[in-house]
Write a structure and sequence with these properties.
Elements lengths: L1 H27 L3 E7 L9 E4 L4 E8 L13 E3 L5 H8 L16 E4 L7 E8 L5 E6 L11 E6 L1
Parallel strand pairs: 1-3, 2-8
Antiparallel strand pairs: 3-6, 4-5, 4-7, 7-8
């Protein structure tokens, strides 16, 4: 009987530890969700995102524009710190058939969505860079970057 009580206590302790570990793992993999809109004024409704190094983030970009997609669509393109945002944008603005993402610039991009036309939402999930600092995100639809559709991911 004593052995059974000892085994029950040990089993309960092990089960508790297992549940605690499982909960911690599940919590650590839950993404921080950022919901933003791309506006007809060519702006992101969220221009600053705060994150911890390596934190999982989901960006959901909505577009409620009434303009046709050829005139007003948006994407979210997060750039590496070393990226030349003007060069990425210029090359990407010529890539209509590739959602305005230049294949030759992918090495400068951390994460990106497809295009969101009016009434659509696109999303991307990624891990924030491990290196603290500021990372630029832009919309590469023609004319939007030049009009100020830019934001900053701050990793600290």
């Amino acid at each position: 009987m004593k052995n059974l009580k000892i085994m029950s206590k040990n089993s309960l302790k092990m089960l508790s530890m297992l549940l605690l570990f499982t909960s911690a793992v599940a919590f650590s993999q839950t993404a921080k969700v950022i919901e933003m809109k791309g506006t007809d004024q060519m702006r992101f409704s969220v221009e600053t995102i705060q994150a911890s190094p390596g934190q999982k983030i989901t960006v959901k970009l909505s577009n409620d524009s009434k303009f046709p997609a050829v005139a007003m669509a948006h994407n979210f393109v997060l750039l590496k710190q070393s990226a030349d945002s003007k060069a990425v944008n210029l090359a990407s603005s010529k890539q209509r058939d590739n959602d305005y993402i230049a294949p030759e610039m992918k090495d400068q991009i951390i994460a990106h969505t497809g295009l969101a036309a009016g009434g659509q939402t696109v999303e991307v999930t990624f891990n924030a860079p491990k290196k603290p600092g500021k990372y630029t995100y832009i919309c590469t639809f023609p004319g939007h970057f030049q009009s100020g559709m830019i934001g900053t991911l701050i990793v600290k």
